[in-house]
């Protein structure tokens, strides 16, 4: 029997967590042979609701769940955490852009960065889900001295998964037939879902669709999918967001499949002309618990324009919260 992995989850009484916690505890994230201890963080007013969620976790009698810690103190919830899923933050409502949340959510990630640095496992793998996820991850990274900045990532996997299905549906294929899409840049309406390196059943995707569909349908549909869900549900995506978080960590910890490329929001390192200093959606592969930014994807003139726009937005977001960068 493997030793349990400690997984901290913030916003544990929220709607994403209502799906996420049960999937982690059932082994979807770290494997069906990996016990877990859930360390749940909420704000004080939500502790009672969290109690109810924990009763439900208990009532599942999950074989892999080896303990649950619940606290409103990050120093307790992050203690010795091996993995931290930072979901706790306000969601946007109709008519807002995700960056409108920076003012209310940004500050959460200064305190949580410090607490993680103080008490978590030094190699803790962090995924920021709370919006605006890329810039919140940057804030966290700048406030977490002693943690490896490479281990602080933001969620672009939902955008990646959305792009796969939109492309598959268009050409009458299945998402599993699609390889090498990328959601470059920011998890926002400037992100660039790119199919120029993608294949469907081994055929170049760009030869199966026309530019008009790309510009007027595919790109805006993926860019604005979150808003479309809010419009339809009255609430932001939850189960699909939880699924993407599970996918992100599973790929990172257990590795990507042979030939599989996934999108992760990671610190920019100069790859593809994006200077250091932002969290950027890049194509990645993972092996032995580490991710690598895939080099050599073709960036044509069409793609360059979109990539530059999303990079510019990330710089603007960063400039607007300079005071939180430590
Ligand atoms: P929700 O309002 O249902 O739940 C958020 C929970 O976080 C609440 O229970 C709240 O009490 C808690 N919380 C607030 N501040 C906290 C803090 N400082 N510490 C711990 N917990 C705190 O929202 P949700 O639908 O679960 O969404 C959570 C966040 O995830 C939102 O910001 C949303 O926009 C974002 N999101 C991101 C993606 C992505 O792809 N990156 C996808 C979907 C949603
Ligand atoms: C999403 O992409 O569904 C989330 O980021 C929620 C949102 O605000 O759109």
What features would you describe in this structure?
It is a single chain. The chain has two domains: about 5-155, 3-Layer(aba) Sandwich (Rossmann fold), CATH 3.40.50; about 155-325, Lactate dehydrogenase/glycoside hydrolase, family 4, C-terminal (L-2-Hydroxyisocaproate Dehydrogenase, Chain A, domain 2, Alpha-Beta Complex). Helices cover about 40% and strands about 20% of the residues. It has eleven helices and 14 strands. It has helices at about 15-25, 45-60, 75, 100-105, 110-120, 135-140, 155-170, 210-225, 225-235, 240-255, 300-320, and strands at about 5-10, 35-40, 65-70, 85, 125-130, 150-155, 180, 180-185, 190-195, 200, 205, 260-265, 280-285, 290-295. A six-stranded parallel β-sheet has the order 3-2-1-4-5-6. Helix 5 packs across helix 6. The protein is globular, with a radius of gyration of 19 Å. The chain starts with a strand and ends in a 6-residue tail after the last helix. Bound molecules: nicotinamide-adenine-dinucleotide (NAD) and (2S)-2-hydroxybutanedioic acid. Catalyzes the reversible oxidation of malate to oxaloacetate.
């Amino acid at each position: 029997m493997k030793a349990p992995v400690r997984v901290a989850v913030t916003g544990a009484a929220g709607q994403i967590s209502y799906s996420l916690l049960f999937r982690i505890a059932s082994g979807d994230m770290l494997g069906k042979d990996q016990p877990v201890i859930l360390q749940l963080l909420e704000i004080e007013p939500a502790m009672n609701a969290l109690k109810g969620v924990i009763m439900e976790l208990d009532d599942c009698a999950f074989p892999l769940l080896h303990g649950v810690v619940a606290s409103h103190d990050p120093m307790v919830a992050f203690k010795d955490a091996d993995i931290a899923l930072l979901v706790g933050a306000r969601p946007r409502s109709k008519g807002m852009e995700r960056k409108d949340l920076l003012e209310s959510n940004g500050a959460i990630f200064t305190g949580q960065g410090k607490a993680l640095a103080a008490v978590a496992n030094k190699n803790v793998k962090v995924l920021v889900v709370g919006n605006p996820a890329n810039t919140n991850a940057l804030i966290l990274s700048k406030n977490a001295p002693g943690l490896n900045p490479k281990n602080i990532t933001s969620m672009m996997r939902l955008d990646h998964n959305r792009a796969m299905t939109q492309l598959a549906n268009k050409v009458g294929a299945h998402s599993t037939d699609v390889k090498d899409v990328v959601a470059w840049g920011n998890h926002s309406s400037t992100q660039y879902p790119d199919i120029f390196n993608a294949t469907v059943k081994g055929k170049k995707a760009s030869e199966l669709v026309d530019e008009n569909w790309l510009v007027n349908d595919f790109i805006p549909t993926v860019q604005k999918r979150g808003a479309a869900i809010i419009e339809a549900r009255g609430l932001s995506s939850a189960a699909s967001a939880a699924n993407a978080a599970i996918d992100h960590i599973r790929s990172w910890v257990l590795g990507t499949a042979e030939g599989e490329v996934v999108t992760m929001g990671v610190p920019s390192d100069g790859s593809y002309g994006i200077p250091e200093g932002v969290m950027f959606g890049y194509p990645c592969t993972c092996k032995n618990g580490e991710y690598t930014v895939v080099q050599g994807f073709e960036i044509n003139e069409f793609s360059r324009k979109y990539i530059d726009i999303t990079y510019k937005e990330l710089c603007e977001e960063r400039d607007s919260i300079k005071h939180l960068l430590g």
